[in-house]
C-alpha cells in the first residue's frame, strides 16, 4: 500500500505554500515599516498614512488566514513564521504606542502655535485700530 504524499499539484500543499508566503510577506512588510518608521517622530505625512494603511491591510490578510483551520497547515516552517509574526505584532504594538505619543506631542505643539498666531493676529488688529 502506497502512502499519499502531497505533491506540488496537491491543493493542500499549494494552500500551505500560499499561507507560508503570506506570513513571509507580512513579516517582510513589518520589517520595512520598522526600518523606516521606528523611533521617528510622527508628522502626519501621506507616506506615514499610506504605511499605516499597508499595515492594516497586512493585519487583515493574516487575520483572515488565521481564522481558517490553521492546525491542518502546521509545519516547523509555518510555526517559525508564525513566531516571527507574533514578535512583529508585539513590536508593532510598542511602535504604535510610541507613534501615538509623538502624534500627541505634535498636536499639542500645533495647538500652542495656533494660540500664539491668534494672539499675534489680535495684536495686529488692535495695532491697526489705534492708528
Description:
The chain has 131 residues and is mostly helical. The protein is built from three helices and no strands. The longest helix is centred in the last third of the chain and has 54 residues, at 76-129. The termini are far apart. Residues 1-11 have low confidence and may be disordered.
Task: Give the tags.
131 residues; mainly alpha; 79% helix; rod-shaped; disordered N terminus
Number of domain units: 1
Number of strands: 0
Q: How many helical elements?
A: 3
User: What is the global morphology?
Assistant: rod-shaped
Alpha-beta content class: mainly alpha
How far apart lie the N and C ends? 105 Å
Largest sheet at a glance?
A: none
Query: Approximately what portion of the residues adopt beta-strand conformation?
Result: under 5%
Give me the Rg, rounded.
25 Å
**Helix residue percentage:** over 70%
Mean pLDDT over all positions? 81
In the predicted model, the low-confidence regions spanning at least 5 consecutive residues are 1-11
The arrangement of helices and strands along the chain is HHH
Amino acid at each position: 500500500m502506497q502512502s499519499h504524499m502531497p505533491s506540488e499539484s496537491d491543493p493542500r500543499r499549494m494552500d500551505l505554500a500560499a499561507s507560508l508566503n503570506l506570513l513571509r510577506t507580512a513579516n517582510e512588510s513589518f520589517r520595512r515599516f520598522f526600518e523606516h518608521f521606528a523611533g521617528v517622530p510622527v508628522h502626519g505625512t501621506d507616506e506615514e498614512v499610506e504605511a499605516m494603511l499597508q499595515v492594516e491591510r497586512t493585519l487583515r490578510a493574516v487575520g483572515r488566514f488565521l481564522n481558517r483551520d490553521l492546525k491542518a497547515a502546521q509545519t516547523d516552517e509555518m510555526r517559525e513564521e508564525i513566531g516571527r509574526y507574533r514578535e512583529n505584532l508585539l513590536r508593532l504594538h510598542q511602535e504604535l504606542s510610541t507613534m501615538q505619543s509623538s502624534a500627541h506631542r505634535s498636536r499639542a505643539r500645533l495647538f500652542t502655535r495656533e494660540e500664539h498666531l491668534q494672539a499675534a493676529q489680535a495684536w495686529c488688529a488692535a495695532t491697526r485700530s489705534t492708528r
